[in-house]
Design a protein that fits this description.
This protein is 63% helix and 9% strand. By secondary structure, the protein is an alpha+beta fold.
């Protein structure tokens, strides 16, 4: 049989053949399957979520021939289910950027009908984003802490198998601490030890930091020292251990042992692997380490070395806002002391322009007595 390429007794122009062929191929080719998207600390994965638990996600990657892998929750940056409403995905992205009001507005557009027909996993993700927005916004603003805690607690009660369970347990601790209930906060932080290995170190770190904030410096130093010496067989555990070491150095400074803090941070910096440019968390941790080194050096009356440490934060590792604001504040002090008024003025200008709401900018505005 021959194909008669005529329509209404008129020959088909060659110009029509290419788009017609593409259209036919589109009809005959199988559609590309939609996929769940899981972003880990090592990069994005496309595939299918097979199962979830508070400790891990069972994920079958595209092209894996049916094999699945267990990905610990502490290695997961974010998860988007292909079947979830687009507004849930958008709200989650805004949440990660700290745009809480915008995230809440977008999430409010998800209709009850969309949730009624959704899977249990999608409903769980919607509930997670809802609770996380309320909790994080309350911590950030100090407003409606009771409402934020109620939202987080409700999620934890309803979704005990969620991969976000440990994250929201920690958020509950943050809310309790902000509300002036440190004992309740410590109880929440200690629950993190039930998770993957890095979360066990994180539990001790958060406990130590809370004790330090309460003025229990010697007790905090002991807890953080133990956490900083914990075995660490994965990258997340190593980062938690490094964070504990930075916290211990802060304790040493308060205990009037700054020389030990200097030694400790320098030893830590010597062992830290340089993070990739896209590794935001790693870059921020380096900034925090150099800021702590600057703090320890100034406490040890090593102003010139302290200046270099804070310049390193400003010029190389400035992605952590708190550390960068501290560096700019200390730099304007040190430039003033060294009689470099223009450099001091520029550091003050940048601090007030870039971090106007920070505690370091507020120091600039305090009257001098």
């Amino acid at each position: 049989m021959t194909l008669n390429c005529r329509i209404a007794s008129r020959p088909i122009s060659r110009a029509w053949l290419l788009p017609l062929g593409c259209l036919l191929l589109g009809w005959l080719s199988p559609p590309v399957a939609a996929a769940d998207r899981l972003v880990t600390s090592e990069g994005p994965l496309l595939g299918e979520v097979v199962g979830m638990s508070p400790e891990a996600v069972e994920f079958r990657e595209q092209g894996s021939k049916g094999r699945s892998q267990q990905i610990p929750v502490d290695a997961i940056v974010t998860l988007s289910l292909q079947s979830e409403p687009s507004r849930v995905t958008e709200a989650r992205q805004l949440l990660e950027q700290g745009e809480f009001e915008a995230a809440a507005a977008v999430l409010a557009e998800v209709t009850p009908v969309e949730l009624e027909v959704a899977s249990a996993a999608v409903r769980g993700e919607h509930a997670y984003v809802t609770a996380a927005i309320a909790g994080r916004q309350a911590v950030a603003t100090g407003k409606d802490l009771a409402g934020g805690l109620a939202a987080v607690t409700d999620f934890l009660d309803r979704f005990s198998r969620s991969i976000h369970r440990f994250e929201l347990i920690e958020l509950a601790g943050d809310l309790e601490l902000a509300a002036g209930r440190p004992d309740a906060a410590l109880a929440s932080y200690r629950q993190l030890a039930q998770g993957p290995p890095s979360l066990a170190i994180r539990a001790a770190r958060r406990e130590g930091e809370t004790l330090l904030a309460l003025g229990k410096t010697a007790e905090a130093a002991a807890v953080l020292s133990a956490a900083a010496k914990s075995p660490a067989s994965d990258e997340n555990s190593r980062r938690e251990r490094a964070a504990a070491s930075i916290g211990e150095a802060s304790c040493l400074i308060r205990l009037d042992r700054p020389a030990e803090a200097v030694t400790q941070i320098r030893r830590l910096l010597a062992t830290m692997e340089p993070p990739a440019a896209a590794d935001k968390e790693g870059q921020q941790q380096l900034g925090r380490a150099y800021a702590m080194l600057g703090r320890a050096l100034l406490a040890n009356h090593q102003e010139q070395d302290g200046l270099i440490a804070y310049l390193t934060v400003d010029l190389v590792h400035s992605s952590d806002p708190e550390s960068h604001a501290e560096a700019l504040y200390r730099l304007q002090e040190l430039w003033d002391q060294g009689r470099y008024p223009q450099r001091a003025s520029e550091a003050r200008r940048r601090l007030e322009a870039d971090y106007p709401e920070s505690a370091w900018a507020a120091r600039l505005r305090r009257p001098v007595h």
